């Protein structure tokens, strides 16, 4: 009887298997076609997708449909036809719109240009930093919520800034909800107030966060105002009133671009503990972009090198200076840098590493990065940067820092290829001002690393024993980039098709002899932090004058080169030539290598035809020497890239060691064995 029953059960299961499987498969197909499959490039203006899905809203210009707002437009250079009388670098393509509808709502990233508002704010205190154990942090540290609340107001998002970082092993974090719904009231104001104090004028729209926002000292609370929904606001009010992001700032300096401080600090600071501020952004405020690098119409391009700022979260401490009084060294350096910028009016500023002091004082890199380029960005000057050995000693990685640097105004910083050593190996090209947009100068940027070797003490702290160096894969990358540079006819003569007055004729007239023209790559400069061993090698001698080609202060400190080398000087710099077909001599493409790292070394020394130059320390926050003025090196490139002149401007506005490195007036070319 049992066998007979099992047999019949098996027949029954076999008989229903095929139709059941067919029904399930057909259901899956329908689910994919009508629900999962979305042929559009992203969420539309009507259907709101994600964990707030299927909320139908009326179609009008809003969070995902506003395409004519000037704050969202980012200009970019065009390569198409240029109208008469307009410079090519001032012509932009059609507006590039920030696609706010495609940005995730449940991820905190202050660089995202959200136009969606916040619906609720909470503050929680946790026994540990959620960043350390994220797998269990949500259950233990996040505010409670329900699926219904998540659907209406949005999921909780943690602002990844521990307000108690300086004071405790505990974590004090801000959480908020972000929503695309148009029928939910949104946050429009923030206040930090002492206990028992209320906002004035007070109304029922103000909400007090239950947990104090203050990490220490006087107990203070965060208040936020929610009184209007998205649909109740005009377009102008949406752009100016809605709080779209919250961040935190440690120290006394300015907040990140586009953010504002809440009027009162969450913590005023005490002794060696820095103040803590809440910051917020309203609407969309994308950073302005740098225009394409280009020579002036008379063939000039000026670069200022800024070496070794060594900024901290605090206002900074003065080192090795006769300046008295000297307090707040970071701010004093920014003031000095601003004065140098106004005097020189450079076309590009290059920070050559150690923007951050490391050594335990730049523990919140975001607060430091917000201020290091402030003097440059305030003047609308394009800038680039490389990393030094101290930049990532404390706090964020180089990958994180370069993402933040790319988000600053007028930044030209690039991440570079990910398959080679370092972060920030990239190339910038400076072009002619005429309509031909000819590439006339190449700028190479390399990451010379931090430390190659070191030891850990009994307390687990790392102590470096050897500096890092440029690796073989970086050498290969440089040679590949150099080989891709197109040759041009040099010296360059601008295209006179576009009427630029008498400047072109005056610049070209009587300057170039027919026999002097050649086909070659443009001249190049290279920037990285830690110098090569060859920076301390014997200098070339000018064969005409007998002068040793080594100009500037040196030997005031120990050599700063790495002990190990992969041979970048001989295998890279001396192998990348202007032209493989040039008769007479092998001229290197890179005429100048600019380094930082050594604050009281500021000489330029030519070795086998390549100038190896130090910037010299320009910051009161970095080490120096009494009597050695802070200074900044200038590279003044003229004659459309043919002539490279350098000098240093000191804190007392003295011009020091002016000399020509390449072009007319430069020392005789190197004629020895490479």
Q: In one word, what is the shape?
A: globular
The proportion of residues forming helix, as a percent range, comes to 10-25%
Report mean pLDDT, rounded to a whole number. 86
- The total of helices stands at 11
Number of strands: 30
Biggest sheet statistics: 7 strands, mixed
Q: What does the model show?
A:
There is one protein chain. It is globular and about 100 Å long. The longest helix has 35 residues, at 2-36. It has 674 residues and is of the alpha+beta class.
Identify the notable features of this structure and list them briefly:
674 residues; alpha+beta; six-stranded mixed sheet; 11 helices; 30 strands
Per-chain topology:
Elements: H1 2-36, E1 47-48, E2 55-56, E3 73-74, E4 96-97, E5 117-126, H2 134-141, H3 147-153, E6 156-158, E7 171-179, E8 185-194, E9 206-208, E10 220-229, H4 235-241, E11 243-250, E12 260-261, E13 276-282, E14 301-306, H5 329-344, E15 348-352, H6 365-372, H7 374-377, E16 383-386, H8 398-406, E17 426-431, E18 439-445, E19 451-456, E20 462-467, H9 472-483, E21 488-490, H10 503-508, E22 518-520, E23 523-527, E24 550-551, H11 568-573, E25 590-595, E26 604-607, E27 610-614, E28 631-638, E29 643-650, E30 655-662
Parallel strand pairs: 14-15, 15-16, 18-23, 23-25, 25-27
Antiparallel strand pairs: 1-2, 3-4, 5-7, 6-7, 8-10, 9-10, 11-13, 12-13, 14-28, 17-18, 19-20, 21-22, 24-26, 26-27, 28-29, 29-30
């Amino acid at each position: 009887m049992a066998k007979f029953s099992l047999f019949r059960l098996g027949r029954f299961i076999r008989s229903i298997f095929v139709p059941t499987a067919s029904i399930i498969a057909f259901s899956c197909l329908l689910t994919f076609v009508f629900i999962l499959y979305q042929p559009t490039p992203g969420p539309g203006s009507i259907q709101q997708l994600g964990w707030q899905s299927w909320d139908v809203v009326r179609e009008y210009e809003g969070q995902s449909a506003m395409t004519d707002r000037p704050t969202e437009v980012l200009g970019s250079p065009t390569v198409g036809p240029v109208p008469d009388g307009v410079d090519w670098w001032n012509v932009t393509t059609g507006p590039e719109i920030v696609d706010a509808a495609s940005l995730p709502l449940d991820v905190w990233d202050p660089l995202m240009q959200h136009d969606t508002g916040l619906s609720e704010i909470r503050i929680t205190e946790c026994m540990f930093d959620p960043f350390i154990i994220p797998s269990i942090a949500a259950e233990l540290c996040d505010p409670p919520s329900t699926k219904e609340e998540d659907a209406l107001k949005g999921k909780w998002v943690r602002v990844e800034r521990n307000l108690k970082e300086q004071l405790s092993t505990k974590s004090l974090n801000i959480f908020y909800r972000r929503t695309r719904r148009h029928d939910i009231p949104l946050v429009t104001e923030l206040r930090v107030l002492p206990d028992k104090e209320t906002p004035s004028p007070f109304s029922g729209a103000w909400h007090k966060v239950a947990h104090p926002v203050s990490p220490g000292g006087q107990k203070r609370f965060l208040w936020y105002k929610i009184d209007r929904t998205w649909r109740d606001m005009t377009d102008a009010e949406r752009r100016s009133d809605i709080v779209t992001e919250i961040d935190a700032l440690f120290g006394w300096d300015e907040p990140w671009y586009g953010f504002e401080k809440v009027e009162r600090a969450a913590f005023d600071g005490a002794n060696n503990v820095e103040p803590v501020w809440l910051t917020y952004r309203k609407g969309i405020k994308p950073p302005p972009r740098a225009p394409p690098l280009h020579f002036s119409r008379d063939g000039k391009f000026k670069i200022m090198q800024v070496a070794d700022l060594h900024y901290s979260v605090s206002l900074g401490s003065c080192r090795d200076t006769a300046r008295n009084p000297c307090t707040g060294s970071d701010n004093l350096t920014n003031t000095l840098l601003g004065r140098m910028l106004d005097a020189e009016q450079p076309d590009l500023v290059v920070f050559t590493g150690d923007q951050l002091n490391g050594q335990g004082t730049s523990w919140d890199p975001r607060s430091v990065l917000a201020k290091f380029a402030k003097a440059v960005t305030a003047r609308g000057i394009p800038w680039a940067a490389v990393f030094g050995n101290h930049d990532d000693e404390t706090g964020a990685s180089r990958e994180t820092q370069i993402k933040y640097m790319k988000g600053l105004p007028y930044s030209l910083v690039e991440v570079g290829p990910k398959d080679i050593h370092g972060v920030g190996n990239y190339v910038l090209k400076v072009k002619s001002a005429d309509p031909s947009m000819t590439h006339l100068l190449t700028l190479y940027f390399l990451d010379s690393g931090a430390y190659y070797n070191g030891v850990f003490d009994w307390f687990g702290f790392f102590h470096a024993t050897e500096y890092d160096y440029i690796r073989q894969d970086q050498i290969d990358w440089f040679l590949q980039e150099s080989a891709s540079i197109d040759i041009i006819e040099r010296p360059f003569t601008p295209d006179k098709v576009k009427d630029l007055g008498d400047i072109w004729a005056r610049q070209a007239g009587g300057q170039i002899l027919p026999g002097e023209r050649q086909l070659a790559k443009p001249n190049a400069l290279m920037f990285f932090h830690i110098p090569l061993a060859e920076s301390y090698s014997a200098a070339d001698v000018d064969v005409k004058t007998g002068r040793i080609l080594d100009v500037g202060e040196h030997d005031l400190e120990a050599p700063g080169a790495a002990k190990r080398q992969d041979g970048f000087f001989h295998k890279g710099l001396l192998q990348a030539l202007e032209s493989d077909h040039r008769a007479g001599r092998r001229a290197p493409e890179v005429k100048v290598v600019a380094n930082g790292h050594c604050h009281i070394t500021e000489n330029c020394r030519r070795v086998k035809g390549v100038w190896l130059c130090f910037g010299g320390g320009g910051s009161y926050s970095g080490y120096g020497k009494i009597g050695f003025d802070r200074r900044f090196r200038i590279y003044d490139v003229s004659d459309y890239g043919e002539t490279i002149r350098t000098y240093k401007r000191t804190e007392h506005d003295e011009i020091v060691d002016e000399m020509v490195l390449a072009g007319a007036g430069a020392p005789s070319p190197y004629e020895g064995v490479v």
